[in-house]
Amino acid sequence: MEPGRSGEAPAEPARSEKSADGPAHRVETRLADGPAHRVETLLTSEEFLNGDSADRDAVQEQFEAERDGLTALLTRRWGEPHVFSLWSLRARTAAGATRGDAPEGDAVPGPWAAYDRDGTPHVTGEVIPDPWAALSECVPDLHLWHWDGRWVGLGIAHGGGEDPFRLLVFATLTDPP
């Protein structure tokens, strides 16, 4: 049986060579899976080592066009998507909410957690479940459908600076917080 067809991820990332159409290539490995969600990278760009914002802007436009094309296809099947901003989740994490992947009983602050004067993280007690917490760290907004008891979404991840863009698709049984 071929890797990926059995539902298992290939051992190594399967990447195609850089195409003549641009700096993007396909990635077929799974990322950040959990018991009730799965996140896949459909497309990833090269890193922006030269710091050229014109290149970065052109690649961002390419990724937005790819996402919008997939959105059009999924809209025919499931109807208009919700455009869901993850800004508030990111802000809540900054205010001291914890990620849902923290070990039982541990309060692990998100990456933008506020800290008290003595350097300890300020934790509010709110837990942001994954995949929502992980997505809010790098995706500004999602095109989101609720279908057959699942949330299915598309988003463009970019950590900023030299980081590559990634077109993500995900499915989860967990409702958005």
Keywords:
single chain, 177 residues, alpha+beta, 2 domains, 7-stranded antiparallel sheet, two-stranded parallel ribbon, 3 helices, 9 strands, 25% strand, globular
Structural description of this entry:
With 177 residues, the chain is an alpha+beta fold. It has two domains: 39-45 and 52-86 and 139-177, no CATH class; 87-129, no CATH class. It is built from three helices and nine strands. Strands 1, 2, 3, 4, 7, 8 and 9 form a seven-stranded antiparallel beta sheet that branches. A two-stranded parallel sheet has the order 5-6. The longest helix has 26 residues, at 53-78. The protein is globular and about 45 Å long. The relative contact order is 0.19. The model is unreliable at 1-31 and 102-113 (pLDDT under 50).
Topology:
Elements: E1 25-26, E2 30-34, E3 37-44, H1 53-78, E4 82-85, H2 87-94, E5 98-99, E6 127-128, H3 132-136, E7 141-147, E8 150-157, E9 166-172
Parallel strand pairs: 5-6
Antiparallel strand pairs: 1-3, 2-3, 3-9, 4-7, 7-8, 8-9
Low-pLDDT stretches are 1-31, 102-113
* Quaternary: single chain
- State the helical fraction: 10-25%
User: Average pLDDT value?
Assistant: 74
Distance between termini? Answer: 38 Å
Shape: globular
Percentage of β-strand residues: 25-35%
User: What summary fits the major beta sheet?
Assistant: 7 strands, antiparallel
| Count of spatially separate domains | 2
SSE string, helix = H, strand = E?
Answer: EEEHEHEEHEEE
Radius of gyration: 18 Å
Biased composition (Basic and acidic residues): 14-38
Region (Disordered): 1-38
